[in-house]
Amino acid sequence: MAVFYKKVEKGDPRDRQAVKKWYATVKRINQIKEKEVARQISDETTLNSKEVEMVLSLFQKTLIRLLSEGNSVQLGDWGSFHLTCCSKGHENKEELTANSIEKVNIRFVAGKNLRHALEEIVFKDVDTLL
After folding, report:
1. pLDDT of 44 higher than 90
2. Residue-range domain boundaries for the chain
């Protein structure tokens, strides 16, 4: 199976006068819901889909708790999750407080096996579907 991409013309937001260029962007075919992921996992194991759903739900709960305690979470060769934040800038160090933090993000850094799997992806132009 291939991953489809589409061609998008974009300008440089830093230089509005620059010539627009064409870039590839991944075209998502479907969004697979948790229940379908659980069903597919259950097809490969002795667990039923409800047991897999429970494991996924507990994983989400545990991940949130561990990240909110300031930890990073490594899942073997999958990769690791950690928090990043965006804050207001201040001229003086003393002015920077927790209230300066405007947004918190969860970042996932793929491990070796996932990075290697991504290298094997075959891309296909979505325009070939028409």
Report:
1. yes
2. 39-71
Query: 0.90 exceeded by the pTM?
Result: no
Q: Supply φ then ψ for residue 7, to 5 degrees.
A: -100, 125
* Tokens 């010539």 found at: 19
DSSP 13-78: TTBTTSPPEEEEEE-------HHHHHHHHHHTSSS-HHHHHHHHHHHHHHHHHHHHTT--EEETTT
